[in-house]
């Protein structure tokens, strides 16, 4: 009985660590030095006139049927409103979370896409790098947080303008992630039109 309990606890820990993607090393280590932001970033390119983004790949499944909209405002937009929707497939209930995405002022003059994501109901600000952006195809967001002196926690979100990638787009994204040593175990998020339409 105790062996079964230990096995269950061990598997639960593996699942937790995998979904959080905690790895050895620090965010500033050499194997993360090539995780650069896109050049010439602008919120207009990201928002695409409020066109929908579909999160399709992540290190962890944090919701199905997700949709993300960015609404730019202001003459020189340094921030945008973000509307994030997702569905609980089991219950059929849709959820919504709204926040603000702010271009970090210390990176803005250089055109580097380092963004702060703020939610009104969250105390902590999340900092993401936009490391890939093809206006009509995909956007790749990456976040790294040092957990302690030996470990880091990494977040990866790949968004598409369509509910799924073509095989060519998927190959390009995979190659892009491999070149930056980010091609770890990933989750393909559910974007099935039949399930997500209702």
From TrEMBL:
Alphabetized Gene3D superfamilies for the sequence: 2.40.128.20
Keywords annotated in UniProt: Signal
Signal peptide stretch: 1-19
InterPro entries the record matches: Calycin
Protein name as catalogued: Uncharacterized protein LOC108742084
């Amino acid at each position: 009985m105790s062996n079964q309990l230990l096995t269950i606890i061990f598997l639960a820990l593996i699942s937790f660590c995998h979904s959080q993607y905690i790895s050895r090393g620090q965010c500033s280590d050499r194997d993360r030095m090539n995780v650069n932001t896109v050049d010439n970033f602008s919120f207009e390119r990201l928002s695409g006139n409020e066109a929908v983004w579909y999160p399709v790949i992540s290190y962890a499944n944090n919701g199905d049927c997700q949709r993300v909209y960015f609404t730019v405002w202001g003459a020189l937009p340094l921030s945008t409103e973000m509307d994030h929707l997702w569905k609980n497939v089991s219950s059929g209930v849709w959820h919504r979370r709204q926040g603000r995405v702010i271009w970090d002022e210390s990176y803005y003059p250089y055109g580097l896409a380092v963004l702060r994501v703020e939610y009104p109901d969250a105390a902590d600000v999340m900092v993401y790098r936009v490391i890939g952006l093809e206006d009509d195809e995909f956007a790749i967001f990456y976040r790294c947080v040092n957990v302690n002196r030996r470990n880091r926690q990494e977040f990866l979100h790949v968004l598409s303008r369509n509910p799924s990638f073509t095989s060519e787009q998927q190959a390009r994204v995979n190659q892009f992630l491999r070149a930056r040593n980010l091609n770890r175990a990933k989750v393909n998020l559910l974007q099935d039109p039949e399930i997500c339409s209702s």
